[in-house]
Amino acid sequence: MSISKSKEHPIVGKILAELQGDDWKRVQSIASPVFTSSKMRKMCPLVRQSVEGFMNTLSEYLKNKHEVNVKDMYGCLTMDVIANCAFATKTNAFKDPNNPFVVHERNALKFSFLKFISMLLLPQFVLNILKFRTLMNEKSVDFFSTILRQILGIREKSETKYNDLIDLMMRAKEGKENINDESDRHEFHHIYEDEEEFEITRKILNIKPSNKFITEDEMIAQGLVVFIAGYETVATTLSVCSYELALNPDVQQNLYEEVMSSLDTNGEIDYEVLTKLPFLDAVIAETLRLHSPIVKVGNIAAQDYKLGNTGIIIQKGQTVEIPIYAIHHSKQNYPNPEMFIPDRFLPENRHKIIPYTYLPFTSGPRNCIGMRFALMEVKLCLAHIIRRFQFSRCPQTDVPLILIGNLWERLLTPLPDLEIKWQRKYGKIYGKTLSRSKQHPIVGKMLSELQGDDWKRVRSITTPVFTSGKMRRMYPMVRQSVEGFINAVNEYAKDKQEVNVKEMYGCLAMDVIANCAFATKINAFKDPNNPFVTNAKDGKDNSNDESNRHESHHINEDEEELEINKKILNIKKTNKFITEDEMIAQGFVVFAAGYESTAT
């Protein structure tokens, strides 16, 4: 079954995931340098700022309480981080839950069954009348699009350097960031990426100088990507990680000992040290395997392709769906797949992992562009909180953790379990197609929505923003959020009260994203009604930084794949541009995805 609508939302349709062909290549080539390792290093102080503030707030909160909802807690944190890093905004989501930023963040991805069915069944002219252009909350999309557009206008006239995501993307747009940040290939997560793979990616994103542009809508769209990826998914990841640590005290103790042994003379963890802690990385990797933030992904074949000696030919235009959750829970890939065993991902055991069976961020040129930012946020938060707090079960802790809900057969069977059932019945490869074009003008410009040349263009520009070097710059910002988070948790934990870790980490994720992506202080923990926080909950420059190859989460990527990515993102300079809407769209994705996934 295939569903397609022609009229796209002007922003949502420019998200990298929605762009195709030359547009994808153009935007990707500009966005990639934003997320190199060196850029993340610069952004780390912003994240740290949010985390430290959150810790202080949480400490106060725990003074007279024994329990906390970690999902809400981490949601506040991730919201603060995104507001700070992507929107240059301080939200304090924990203390100010009614802040407009917080309110719209929480509303952005709120699922509407009526809207889903309407967009599935109704003709286009009726959807136009109803103004149904995307499944996302359009009021929240418009709220953040307006903020991003205003920030872009102010930044265009300012000479101040912020080292947040918007600043890095604007520098990438102007061609000031190199797409070949060699430090990326030294990161742990690129375990299976070889030189050829890096080179392919480099060539793909190498576009003509005349094509090296990105429109305002495209920039806004990528901002929305940061928003989505940085809020809910990050908060969710932190939540389930805390859950597993509470159930596995031995693992928690080993992690505590590693973190404490890594502190410098000032009691801090340096960015380079943080990215290379083997057990911390293994704990996060196992969390992402066992509780995959992405259940499955689907890609459209750009040309006919024969799958080795299988006799199967994927025809051009066909959708290939990869059931990530089922792959992660297959006994063929992981012994005792339902057990939490971080040792699987220790350096001495990584060679046992079958290539392309670990896909929390997918793989190849269209992998998650915000991976480094999300991992830096999760690692920094977890390292800070494990130093000062201990996770333990309370009467409200469900064992096992059961996630229910969805449509049709999924009303009784969660989709991940359904994927495993289908895989067992039909084998590793089976057919099922469901697709439609996004309609919102900003959401449609997110990297995940862009296709073809638009995706390539935007990806080539945004990739350098998320290199290891860029993450190093952002490290102080994340640390700021984490330290605030630790202080907040400390106050909350004085009387050994129970907490909702999802809410707790959600506040942290919100603070980090607000700080790093929006240059905004929200304090989601203390202000859960902040419009920034509520909208986040409702909404759901160098692409080859040398150190990225050695990040532990790139388990499946070798030099060949990195080379493929390099070739794909190698576009002519004439195509090296990104529109304002595209920039806003990518910022939105970082915000929304960074909140929920990190908190969880």
Task: Describe it.
The structure is a single chain. This protein is of the alpha/beta class and 600 residues long. It is 47% helix and 14% strand. The strands form 8 sheets. Strands 15-4-16 form a 3-stranded parallel β-sheet. The protein has a two-stranded parallel sheet with strand order 1-14. It has a two-stranded parallel sheet with strand order 5-17. The longest helix is centred in the first third of the chain and has 20 residues, at 138-157.
Write a compact overview of the structure shown.
This protein has 600 residues and is of the alpha/beta class. Helices cover 47% and strands 14% of the residues.
* Biggest sheet, spatial arrangement of strands: 15-4-16
SSE class: alpha/beta
Largest sheet entry: 3 strands, parallel
What is the percentage of strand-forming residues? Answer: 5-15%
The CATH topology name reads Cytochrome p450
Radius of gyration: 21 Å
Number of strands: 20
Mean pLDDT: 75
Question: How are the SSEs placed, and which strands pair?
Answer:
Blueprint: E1 11-12, E2 19-20, H1 21-28, E3 29-30, E4 34-43, H2 45-61, E5 66-69, H3 70-85, E6 86-95, H4 100-106, H5 113-121, H6 124-130, H7 138-157, H8 165-173, E7 183-184, H9 196-204, E8 205-206, E9 210-215, H10 217-230, H11 235-247, H12 249-261, H13 271-274, H14 278-290, E10 297-300, E11 305-306, E12 313-314, E13 319-322, H15 324-328, H16 371-388, H17 415-426, E14 442-443, H18 452-462, E15 465-467, H19 468-471, E16 472-474, H20 475-493, E17 497-500, H21 501-516, E18 517-525, H22 531-538, H23 559-567, E19 570-571, E20 574-579, H24 580-599
Parallel strand pairs: 1-14, 4-15, 4-16, 5-17, 6-18, 8-19, 9-20
Antiparallel strand pairs: 10-13, 11-12
Helix pairs in contact: 1-18, 2-3, 2-16, 2-20, 2-21, 3-11, 3-20, 3-21, 3-22, 3-24, 4-22, 7-10, 7-22, 7-24, 9-23, 10-24, 11-14, 11-21, 11-24, 12-16, 16-20, 16-24, 20-21, 21-24
